[in-house]
Design brief:
alpha/beta, Rossmann fold, five-stranded parallel beta sheet, 16 helices, 5 strands
Length: 303
């Protein structure tokens, strides 16, 4: 009988969601989607295929396994505004994992990712001006609020990259316990941190067609390493370094959102500057209840 997902890794983009997806896939109690993201809940055309099509993607999954999918588009407001509504229709009992990274570092990584994929070609400075979603996707309270209001904080687990890096085994155990796993998971270091933009080359169909043509691979390997590295640098972009002015401007946009998130988590002083320090020191959980969220929702509806 076809299954539907028990839980979703909903983001944030460029915040180790691929790493967590792979770690859960390595655990015997879990089945994680492949490909990682079907975009059923976020893409209008794919959602139009219907719930039966979605269920067919999991038709061979054992009922004894915890079934999870990942879709970082689920927390990309305002780009995908109907996701929560669709989850309520299709997966009303699902649990959610939201992974958060230093919001400034996340912005830089998103820019690099989109440059590599040729979704953006302008400089980082221009991208900050022309692509407001770079900042929006780092406004974590904004992205989380619809989930907390629709499903309650008990169904949403906040996870931080700072703790995944410093205490990966303990964080994986916390995730598995939240999802209802009964066995102790094992963090697989060989599956960690593979999706690193700084190590990738910019997408180029013609370049790959030439480099991977029959016989060319052997010739390429015969070239001196320095020459090969010089060639690779043509298809890589150095990681942008924020200027003091850029940091101040981004903090002005992000810190009010982080202050709200910090209040929900019992860490009211949360800012861009102290994000990593605060989030790695304590195992933060929700200090906000359904009643308070209900009042916030009613106040928002009255505005």
């Amino acid at each position: 009988m076809p299954r539907l997902p028990d839980f979703l890794i909903i983001g944030a983009m460029k915040s180790a969601t691929s790493t967590l997806h792979r770690q859960l896939a390595a655990q015997p109690e879990f089945w994680m989607s492949s490909p990682k993201e079907h975009y059923f809940l976020s893409d209008d055309a794919i959602y139009g295929r219907g719930a039966h099509w979605y269920a067919q993607q999991f038709r061979n999954v054992s009922p004894n396994l915890l079934l999870g999918v990942s879709n970082t588009h689920c927390t990309k407001l305002p780009s995908y505004p109907r996701v929560v509504e669709r989850i309520q229709e299709s997966l009303p009992d699902a649990k959610f994992i939201y992974v958060m990274r230093n919001p400034l570092e996340r912005i830089i990584s998103q820019y690099l990712h989109e440059w590599l994929e040729r979704e953006v070609s302008v400089s980082f400075e221009l991208a900050l001006l022309e692509r407001p979603e770079l900042v929006a996707y780092s406004q974590y309270a904004r992205q989380l609020r619809p989930y907390l209001e629709a499903f309650g904080p008990q169904r949403v687990l906040p996870v931080f990259v700072s703790r995944l890096r410093t205490q990966p085994q303990l964080e994986l155990e916390r995730v598995v316990a939240f999802l209802g796993g009964r066995e102790r998971p094992i963090w697989r270091q060989e599956r960690a941190w593979e999706n690193v933009s700084a190590q990738r080359l910019r997408f180029s169909r013609w370049r790959d067609a030439v480099l991977y043509a029959p016989g060319v691979s052997q010739l390429r390997q015969a070239l001196p390493q320095k020459l090969r590295d010089r060639f690779k640098r043509l298809w890589r972009r150095p990681r942008p370094v924020l200027t003091a002015n850029q940091r101040a401007q981004l903090a002005a946009q992000l810190d009010p959102d982080l202050a709200e998130l910090g209040t929900w988590l019992g860490a009211a002083e949360l800012t861009c500057e102290n994000f990593d320090e605060v989030t790695k020191q304590a195992n933060l959980g929700w200090q906000v209840d359904d009643e308070r969220l209900g009042r916030n929702r009613a106040a928002a509806a009255g505005r």
